[in-house]
Structures are given as structure tokens and as C-alpha cells.
Design goal:
This protein is α+β, with helices and mostly antiparallel strands and 202 residues long. It is built from 6 helices and 11 strands. The chain is globular, with a radius of gyration of 16 Å.
Amino acid sequence: SVLWILRVPPRMRRLFDDTIGASPLPVARELRRRLPSCLDDPAEATMLHNRLYELHGIGDRPGIPPSEEGQNGFTQLCMIAKVLDVPGIVLEAPAMTDVTDFHLSSKNVTMPPLRRPERGEAAFLGVRVGREAWVPPLVLEHAGRVWDLQGCFLGSEFCGHQISIARSCEDETWAVSDSDGIRLGIRPICFRRPKGVAWADL
């Protein structure tokens, strides 16, 4: 789900690729080498998973049983952004409280907070939802900027699984990916939001 959000929305891909392309960090070299093919080549995706864990403790520990896997995808994305120095802002719904300055914490590692963007600097904004019945708007205004929805992580605590949905073009074309489904040969599902139909009504 993390790779889907990093690679499919054109704006997210540009944001991370611009940083990855200019960075001398070992993690950037791994991402430069493997990201372009990771959605089509399971071996590359697995190697990237292993290297992210080896270098920064990002993701699940390689080799653990599938039943023990599962971390918050947005936290993992923020950790990748942190080690690359990609700026971001994090809000918490429904009050839209700014929690950007909180440390990033997962099962394996804790990192300092994301770097906030400087004025006009390319960045991403994420909204943590938790158990709230909150529907993301297609456009969100915050900190004097307008942010267009690029993707969502959709998780179920009941089944311990997470998928992601991403804007696959600059228009209203979206694609849903489930990594377990892909392992079974089920490819991503694409759809287009009809004009005039609210996101909440889909």
C-alpha cells in the first residue's frame, strides 16, 4: 500500500522522485534503483522492503510470519519521507489538529518528526483518521495552501489488513490496490469518479 501511494499519483511520484534523484543517501540509491519496477516485479519489491528495514528499520522485519505483519502505512510513508528529508504536514481528523511535531513511531523504530515545508516548498499533507467517521474532501485548504487528495490508506483492525487507493491521473481516475490480491493474480481495480458525484457518495 505504501509503494502504491508513492508511485501511482503523479504528484506524489514527482515529489519523492525529485528528492531521491538528488540525494546521495544509501536509501535514496535503493529507491532510485528499485522503485520504478517494484509494482511489477515482486523480487524488486521484496528487496526494497528488506533494504528499507536494514537501513532504517522501516517496515516489517523480513522473514516474520505473515500473521505478524502489518504496520500503519501512513507512518511508514512518513518515515521514508523523514530519512529522505521530504517535507510534510500531518493533521488529525476530525478537529484537524496539527500533529506534525509528534515523533514517528512504529513497531521497530522511533524517528524525529517530519520537517515542515518552507514557504512555497513542495510537500505533502496527510490526515490521520483513526476510528473517526471522516471522509476526505477532494480539496483541502490548510496553512495558506490548497491540497488535492492524492490517495488514502484504508485499513481494517478487524482483519488486520490494509489496502490503498490512489489518484492514477491528474483527472478523476483512481486505482485500488491490495498487495495480497496481487499475490493471487488479482490486478488493481480502476474507476473514474463521475462529474458532480461527491467522494462520500461513491
